[in-house]
Design goal:
The protein is α/β, with parallel strands linked by helices. The chain is built from 9 helices and 8 strands.
Length: 266
């Protein structure tokens, strides 16, 4: 990840740039591009499902994901975030028909039964009472609605044997079965997918296994290499899959239907 304190580049006139603080990812910061693309690809995967839908993007951050839904043809999109700087930035930067941004807490914002799609991406690991938040999200779904919830895989984000990574904003990180159980505590049907490297990032993984980390440090080309490599990463260098082993996933994506206690058939 890019060093904290770096700010977005080349923002439209009148739009205040946001600075990295480690809590959320941002577009337009070249050395943050890996994390931005890793998050954006999931938004784009979901966006293929939203044409004509009423969408709520909870903890929308900078706003790029909510904007992706609007561009994909959603009937309406609301992006909600509690952070005042993120809200103001999103409101000013992403102006298009059917898209609006609101300030609010994920624990309480929203009208019951009002949304066909609710997204809550890369945030459940930040909240004090995740099961209660997911139950609230379930209450916001219209009949037949879908909630999408993502979170990092503990096994690939944290050191081997550790119970959490060193990210100070994460309260808990999950293994696949733990995340499934959490989602099933709030929803009647849960389908779990994983996010994985492919393309240049898959090749980079192979190079690391062959000792690339030692080589670039020995050659003193680390900074030069990664200043070129990281900005070149694209969403096509990731893939969402239901068939690969979840233990190897970078992130989990839960597709959730039917709040617990509701009558539900798939």
């Amino acid at each position: 990840m890019a060093p904290n304190g770096q700010s977005q580049q080349n923002q439209p006139p009148g739009v205040p740039p946001l600075s990295l603080n480690g809590e959320r990812t941002l577009p337009d910061v070249p050395l943050e591009n890996y994390w931005f693309r890793r998050h954006l690809v999931v938004y784009e995967w979901i966006a293929a499902q939203v044409p004509g839908a009423r969408v709520l993007d909870m903890a929308c951050g900078e706003g790029y994901g909510a904007a992706a839904f609007a561009r994909a043809g959603a009937r309406s999109v609301v992006g909600v975030d509690a952070n005042p700087e993120a809200h103001e930035h999103a409101r000013l930067r992403y102006t298009m028909p059917g898209l609006r941004f609101e300030r609010g807490l994920v624990q309480s914002w929203g009208e019951p039964g009002a949304y066909d799609v609710v997204t809550f991406l890369q945030t459940v690991e930040h909240v004090q009472e995740p099961a209660a938040v997911l139950r609230h999200i379930g209450s916001l779904l219209a009949p037949g609605g879908v909630a999408y919830v993502s979170t990092p895989n503990l096994l690939t984000i944290a050191p081997r044997g550790a119970q959490k990574s060193d990210n100070p904003w994460h309260l808990r990180e999950y293994r696949a079965h733990e995340f499934r159980e959490l989602c099933e505590s709030a929803f009647g049907a849960v389908r779990l997918c994983g996010l994985y490297h492919r393309g240049r990032l898959h090749h980079h993984e192979l190079a690391l296994r062959l000792g690339w980390d030692r080589l670039h440090k020995a050659l003193r080309v680390s900074r030069i290499f990664y200043e070129h490599f990281i900005p070149g990463i694209r969403t096509r260098d990731f893939v969402v899959s239901e068939v690969r082993p979840l233990s190897n996933a970078l992130d989990f994506l839960a597709v959730c239907r039917g709040p617990v206690g509701a009558c539900y058939t798939d």
